[in-house]
Amino acid sequence: ATAAGWNPDNNNTPMVRLPDSEENNFTFTGYFAGGGEGAKLLEVLGQWQPQWGDDGGALASSDDLGTDPAALSITTDGYYTIDIDIAARTYSITPYDASGAATYTTIGIIGDATPGAWDSDTDMTQSAFDPHIWYLNNVDLENGFLKFRAENAWDTNWGADTEFSGFGTQDGPNVPVTKGTYNVWFNDLTGGYMLIPVQ
Length: 199
What we know:
Radius of gyration: 17 Å
Largest sheet: 6 strands, antiparallel
Number of strands: 18
Number of helices: 1
Strand content: 35-45%
């Protein structure tokens, strides 16, 4: 049901960690392809274990069960929001109406933490599976700040004050960044972003 298929190391789209949730709560809104087996959640890119999925309507991990959980079922093509709480072992899958959402030609990062500083955008790659998902792999960032913006202009831009993950809003604050190499993901439907340090 996902862009990566069943490949655990195929630039798999991350969920967004809620920045105030002590790493227990994650969410993702985007397109899913129905008609297959659904989707599972992986903790580590490229590794099948531990994996998360369904166990009789509850969220469960392979560590919980001693075997692989079932896939999260998505039977119909469309946009959905998946919310998970790994402490409570709960999840929900809710249809999302993306019919009125703008589709952008370009989205990039800009700011003194980025290669182009505040002078020029570093363009992200648009997902071929879902046009509202954008990514930039192995980008070197400096100590400082960044924002996300569409079409190389400030008319549509997103920012928030939480490092690593959060939900940008129009004309929001600058996103704080610590120097390092990152995979950067952005969702223009929700403003959700993840800056994942590259090990």
